[in-house]
Each structure stands twice: as structure tokens, then as C-alpha cells.
């Protein structure tokens, strides 16, 4: 229905919105948004922690994804509700910023909203809740920094503990040790030392995957892999001390843009025509050979005849490499991507110690190893099925991000819910000094943090209430690192080697609080009509008597 503003002086209602626009306001809008966000949090809660379950997501075309990665679950879920979409966004942001904690952030945001709902029920205005949450967030970040340990960025043992912690929660947990080593090797290879510490660009690490063999066969290669085979069987399959030409134009006779017709009447003319084509192709190959290149990577096609000439000259050639691979190759080998063959000189060539075609499963791939720039690395993931390989890729991504996080900011906290309980108990003490309603909001925030240990306990089949009571008691006695032991009970997480980057925990707290506040501040949802009629926010939970509209 179009929105009508209260009658004007003349008694006529004024329509300000289009026909079909839906609008919900005040508490109704707030409750509906909170309910939707809570559903999202509830959905991913069961996948948190080392005993978390996986989800099987089936896309509309039937593609199946099996994962317990929060960001991936939410991305694949195709969520429609606008407030629920904000939860998906926050998970994505966390993934982009720190690479891990994408489930925790959503679960925490959900519990913050649940606590806010309780406060709203006590007639505390959302502005006060938002302010209280903001103050509590700042304090919580301070407490996290107080309990964090500073480590050395090159401390392999610590990097390994953190990488193993993050991978222990994934399908690949059996192989976490070996995968952690690979992640550390890769990150340390591409890390650049600057005045302010290390800088790591995770995009410098290329990840390739191929179903087959087992995860044990996953390897780091110092160089680049092209998922293409050598174009001609007569070419060498291996070249040492490779000088690599990177060409961005086709090694083919150019076709005219318009339809041309030539009349051939005599056999000699036919021969002359073909000879000319041959001559042009030979000329192209000669230019490559003259530059002293012994490997050619072409972004476009290579004519059969040109392949033959290249093979005769002992050049190993690959065609139709992707643009991103060309860029990576240029960076790794120190070569330049040349568009016009006439411009190709020896100076444009890149260098690699070894270029070789190897069989990976049923395919043949070309490995370019020992590059000029040692910062070029590739992780080649293997595994039983494509589902395993896909999930392994996501887990290695988490591992790489966690190692990067610590190398860039060398501070860690113990995991297993221990920082959440510690920060929560310190927040409760701090909140006592606050006055009235703000205190209630701060306490709500402190209690919300306990959702993480409680979810870890629940997923491990333990009684969350028992565990929380024991955890609070342990922290009360000064056991800062007491956390949820997945096999049952409460243990010192630092002793168990369960560590996580400080930046991940900071991001979780910051982002969860941000999205919860954002959702709380909304008191009016105006949705334009959509052809599918999906624009209107779904109805919230049934209204109680006290929830009548403002
Ligand atoms: N061995 C362990 N014992 C207890 N808790 C653990 C252990 N390993 C990891 N955890 C805890 O599990 C939680 C992380 O779980 P999980 O990796 O499933 O979620 P996430 O990191 O929030 O999201 P995602 O990894 O999907 O981005 C952290 O709180 C971490 O401390
Ligand atoms: Mg994780």
C-alpha cells in the first residue's frame, strides 16, 4: 500500500511513496530485523569450533558445497531479508580483513541482538543500548590487548600453533600439521620486510587445486603452475635455464575483418598463397627464436604450423594462458608481456630455472619453477574428490590468513573461548561503575560474549551451562587461559597450544558490535515494490501486547 501521511488541512491524505511500496516502522521494524539476524546467527552456530558440523548447500543448479566456513555458508545461502543480508556482509568483511572468525562474528552479533531485545523489553531505548555497546566494545578491545601475548613474527612454532588451531575446525583437521607447514612456508616466502615490520599480500600466493590422490600430496611450489599443456608433441617437455617470452598476441595469420574472396585459377597460385601464409608464420617464429627465448607463453592461440616451427627450434610453448597468469608470470620471472612481436627483444624475456610439463591426474600442467623473483609461490591442493579439494582450499585460505595476520601484527590470544570469558568478566567488573541503563547495556554486551564458549561446548556435546559456570570460576581464580576443552571439561588453552591472532578477535568484537548497532538503529523499513514481490521485509515474530507500534 502507498504510504499516506496524516490528513492535511484540506482533509486530503498526501501520498509520498509509490504504489506497492511497503513500510514497517518502530518496534515492528526493529523486531523483524532482529528476528531475521538471529536466524542467520542460529544457522551458523552449529558449525563453530573443532567439533562444529559441516553444512551441505545445494545451489539452484544443483551444485553442492560442503563446508563449515561461515562466510561460505552465508554466501551460498542466497539470503533475501535486508537485515539478514547485513549479517552476511559482516561475515564477508571479516573474511576480507582477517580471513578467519567469519562464523564467530555472526554468532556474536546474533547474541548481541538477542540481549538488546531483552533490554528493549525493559523499555530501554535503542540509542542507550547502542551507546552502551559502543563503550563496552572500546573497553573489550582494551582488555583483549591486555591479555594478548606479543610474539616474534618469524616464530615458526607459534605460527604453527595458530595455523593448526584454525585448521583444526575444518574438514582437513587430520592433515592440519602438514598444511600448517605449507601455509607458513608460503607466507614467509612472500612476506616483505619493511620499516614497520612485515607486509604480506596473500594474492602473491597462487592456489591451484586438482581432485585426485590425497590431501597428503598437497605441496608448495616455488613458482607458478599453468593448467595448460605443452601445445605440440614434438616440443621439449622440460627446459632448464628457461628464457621465457610472454606474448599477448596470437601467433596466427590475422584474419581480415571483412569477408574477402580470392580467385585461384592455377595450382601455382594456390601454392603461392599457402607459401605466403607459411612465410608469415615462419617470420613470427623467427622473431621469437631470435630473441633467444626457449619457452613461449602466449595469451592467445598458436597456429599449428607455427607450433611445428617452434618445436623444430626446440621451444616449449603454451597457449591461451589467462591474463592473471600472464601478470603473475611477468612478476615472477621478471619478464615483460609483449603485445607486438616486432618489439620482442632479449630484454623482455623472463627467467626460470626449470620449466616442465607434469601429469596431474588426467591433465598435463606446466610448472615454472625457480623464478627470478623468489616471492612467487603456488600451493597445489590435491584430495580425494572435488568437494574435499574445495573445502581444503577454503581451509588453507584460513590458514594462510591467520599466518599472515600474525606475521603482520605479531600478537596472539589463546582460543577455545578463553578470551571471551576473560573479557566478559572484566567487562562485568567495569560495568558496575556505570550508572543505570547504560550499565544494563554494558552487562548485556559482556554476557553476549559468552556465546562463543557456550557454542563451542554445545557443539562438542557438552552442557554449555556447566561449562560456563566452570569457566567463570576458573577465570575468577585467575586462570586467564581457561577455555573449552573439546573432549570435555575446562582446560588451559595456552598449554594446549590453541592460539589465535589478536587481530581476528579484535575484528570479531568490532564488526559484531557494529552490525548489531546498525540493525538496532533502524526504526523504519521502506521497501520499494519488486516484481517478484520479495521487497517487503518478512513479518517479524508475533506481536505481544507491549509491542504495539510507537
Ligand atoms: N582445539 C580447540 N579447542 C577448543 N577450541 C578451539 C580449538 N580449536 C579452535 N577452537 C575455537 O574454535 C573457534 C573457531 O571456530 P571456527 O573456525 O569454526 O569458526 P570461525 O573461526 O569463527 O569461522 P570460520 O573459520 O568459519 O571463518 C575459536 O573460538 C577457537 O578458539
Ligand atoms: Mg576459524
Describe this structure in words.
With 550 residues, the chain is α+β, with helices and mostly antiparallel strands. The protein is built from 17 helices and 23 strands. The protein has helices spanning 26-45, 70-76, 82-97, 102-121, 126-147, 156-168, 176-190, 267-290, 304-312, 323-333, 386-408, 418-431, 436-449, 451-459, 464-476, 493-496, 502-521; strands spanning 4-5, 14-15, 22-25, 55-58, 64-67, 149-150, 192-194, 197-199, 205-211, 219-221, 223-226, 238-247, 295-298, 316-318, 337-338, 350-360, 363-371, 377-383, 411-414, 482-484, 490-492, 499-501, 524-527. Strands 11, 12, 13, 14, 15, 16 and 17 form a seven-stranded mixed beta sheet that branches. Strands 6-19-22 form a three-stranded antiparallel beta sheet. Strand 16 (350-360) and strand 17 form a beta hairpin. Helix 1 (26-45) crosses helix 3, helix 4 (102-121) runs parallel beside helix 17 and helix 6 (156-168) runs antiparallel to helix 11 (386-408). The radius of gyration is 30 Å and the shape is elongated. The chain binds adenosine-5'-triphosphate and magnesium ion.
Keyword list:
550 residues; alpha+beta; 7-stranded mixed β-sheet; 3-stranded antiparallel β-sheet; 46% helix; 18% strand; disordered C terminus; binds adenosine-5'-triphosphate; binds magnesium ion
Number of distinct beta strands:
23
Helix content, binned percent: 40-55%
| Overall radius of gyration | 30 Å
The biggest sheet, with number of strands, parallel, antiparallel or mixed sense and barrel status, is: 7 strands, mixed
**Mean pLDDT, nearest integer?**
89
Task: List cofactors, ions and other ligands.
Answer: adenosine-5'-triphosphate, magnesium ion
Strand content: 15-25%
Structural class: alpha+beta
How many helices does DSSP assign? Answer: 17
Low-confidence stretches: 532-536, 539-550
Shape: elongated
